[in-house]
Amino acid sequence: MPTLHDATGPELTAAQLHDILRLRVDVFVVEQKAAYPELDGRDLLPDTRHLWFEDSSGVLSYLRVLADPGGVRRIGRVVTAASARGRGLAAQLMDAALLTPGEYVLDAQTYVQGFYARYGFVAESAEYVDDDGIPHITMRRPA
Hints:
Helix content is 22%, strand content 34%. By secondary structure, it is an alpha+beta fold. Strands 1, 2, 3, 4, 5, 6, 7 and 8 form an 8-stranded mixed β-sheet that branches. The longest helix is centred in the N-terminal third of the chain and has 18 residues, at 14-31. It is globular and about 40 Å long.
């Protein structure tokens, strides 16, 4: 049974950060072939919140919540290992992340727009293609 973890940037251990980054690189950089700067300097900030599921095999699903200007929270890096997909782990992470009241924004890959709409997110931009050729859309969930 996977265990849910919730930690701020400074609370992460080196091993936890390593395993989280491994999953993010495995999916976003290798699987999706998106060569981008995964290390953006925000993971260890005190107001960055990390939520993830792991079991004895490692990190299965993950997301982070960043503090953007104006008190808006930005959800990003939502990812699930190929071996753990279809188990509802990302949905459980979204449920946990959204327990904190407030306004949220995210940049969704277009094909999962419906997933985020289930949580009250609405499109606020036209579809755009990022630097790696992946279609995205900006979505917002009002406070």
